[in-house]
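Action item from last week, closing it out:
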Amino acid sequence: MKEPEVFIEAAESKVFDKEHRRKLNFNIAQYDKKVKEGKLQYSNLELAKSRASLLKNKVVENLDKYLIEFEANFIKRGGKVIWAQDEEEAMKEVMQILKRVNAKTVVKAKSMTTEEVHFNDVLEKEGIESLETDLGEYIVQLRREHPYHIVTPAMHLSKEDVAKTFHEKQGTPANWLPPDIVAHVRKLLREKYTKAEVGVSGGNFLIADIGAVAVTENEGNAMMSMAYPKVHIAIVGIEKLIPSIMDLDLFWPLLATHGTGQNVTVYNSILTGPKRADENDGPEEMYVVLLDNGRSELLAQAEQRRALECIRCGACLNGCPIYQGVGGHAYGTTYSGPIGSVITPHFKGMEEFRHLSYSSSLCGKCTEVCPVKIDLHKLLLYNRRDAVERTASKTENLVWYFWKAAMLKRSKMEKGGAKLKNFMLKQFFRKPYGDRREMPVVAPKSFNQIWKSRMKGA
């Protein structure tokens, strides 16, 4: 099946799955409660959002300058930068590093970009163990699933689901509670940190003026994945830049508040390269893979490039009524929800993924909750426009041509009568209208015809 058909089938399944909806609604309700509390730390939240929006806009409009600045400053401190045009190039470079150090085990943390490049799948084929160390990511890895959400990858699961997963995969007691599971995973991962030859992470922000990768987390797993192994690789999208380390006091709280409802996350690390001679912890080698993978295509779009300002907090997913219905897996992409619907057609092709831009109610909730004020619902409309211009078939264009011609002239609109119009609706619009909605029925006479008839009688 093609991607639109896969999405429709998956969405249909999830929307009418009451248990799935119950779990998702419960988890999002908990999120909403925490975010409401977290926002109380701000005396003027709109001002903070406006400042963040202006800074990210400045970065996107001058992306080449900030990328070069970051690279130069990172290299000065002993780090190495790899530029990757797409996922194949990224994984080719990463595999060269892993093979050179004879890596058998990789511990991985805090990285949606590794999902883009299918990191775990590639390493599995090469016989290298790649272990997710974030608890939610570890759970979905055990289930052979992709992350369900940008921030909370196991949002679709209840504690009973998680206990059942560990019971089936690792033989733990079926009635284990969350504290039991957390203690079990902590013990297992601690051993892996000390044995892994390579640690892999993403990056919440790339800091241009000092050449650093900033990572924010709640479990300490990213910190240990970066500190224990001798080699650290950060795979980061080229849009993740901020101009200065002084900007972190703005972005870290905004990300934490909109992502999890916290004032600030528990662990915040700034990595400026490999450890120095006078340091005890940290990798001996550090690489940053700057991943394009369609971002330049999006940057070329004057209206939609604002989507590159996203800080991946996940707020738009939690606010979106479509996401709340179909969930994260139905999208079939790394990034789901409103932001995923905007960027995926540019990252992976408008022809294949244009349907995502139509998977929206255009209610504007995504724009309302965005901490960097991206007009997401407007960007979806721009995507729809581009989808029509680039991918519409001749038949589709022909149908709309005649439809428009009829709508613009009363005499043409009245031709054919209700019988012909109802036939045309069923013939050309039945399938896209969907099986769960009844087709509208054209009345025997239009309002205009009825009005004229009555006026004559008067």
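Closing note: DSSP finds 23 helices and ten strands in the chain.
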